[in-house]
Amino acid sequence: LLLCAVLIRGTKQSAKLNFALILVALAAIVAFVVTAAPHANPDNLSPFTPFGIRGVFSGASIVFFSYMGFDAVATSAEECKNPSRDLPIGIISSIAICMALYIAVSLALTAAVNYTQLDTPEPVAYALRLLGWPDLANLIAVGVLAGIITTLIVYLFGQSRIFFAVSRDGLLPQHLCKIHDTYHTPYLITIVGSIVIAIISGFVPLMHIVELSNTGTLAVFLINFIGIVAMRRNHPEIPRKFRCPILPIIAPIGVIVCFYLIYELSPLTHMLFIGWLVLGLIIYYGYSRSHSLLNK
Which domain holds residue 278? Predict the structure, then answer.
């Protein structure tokens, strides 16, 4: 709710807070890698994939949660000075940097401590305690919390801008996304969304949240891949600020990967997602389709 207030205050203010917290999180990551790397033992990395390729994909279906913030960056397009240039650079470079950091942390972690000892809610801090760095483990925990807060800022920002764009297109009632007279931000949907997220995080088990969020985001990506191809074929006249290279190759691969990662999640998640999808279709055919500005 505190972050909600910051986001209502304005994009610049939330960006400054986000930047400061990211520096704290990055410092924690670098400190861990530098501390754990000298303790690396090659024997801990053998076998390198103890659960095989299937284990890699099963893990990817959960770890995908860590990559969900990048698509939210695209929701800031209308608040960028030059979105057609800045957004692709920002998204692609941030993915590359974060992927390198993820690899460095996971490699340092599993090389320093055998993976069989890491079945714990705080593997990084736990590993540092095993290596004899309890005080650093506590500082790393602070960095992890900073990282969680930066993720929340991006998600709360992204969901309000998505609802704003959807309501402006007529797919939801436009009064949902009223703009604040002073701060010029979609304050109403930011408040409602933040309260709903706070309630869900307080009462729903974390793994259910992660799996359902992953399923929803993967489904969005899957539909986007199909939608881009359909839009190019059916509406070639619509102006396009962004281009996707070698789409005939990327789109089918994207659909297959998204579908398989969804398949790897639990049956309960599949059932919940179907219910979520049905609810979305009811809203679409009950209200959105008849009010869509593009459809008119």
Answer: 205-296
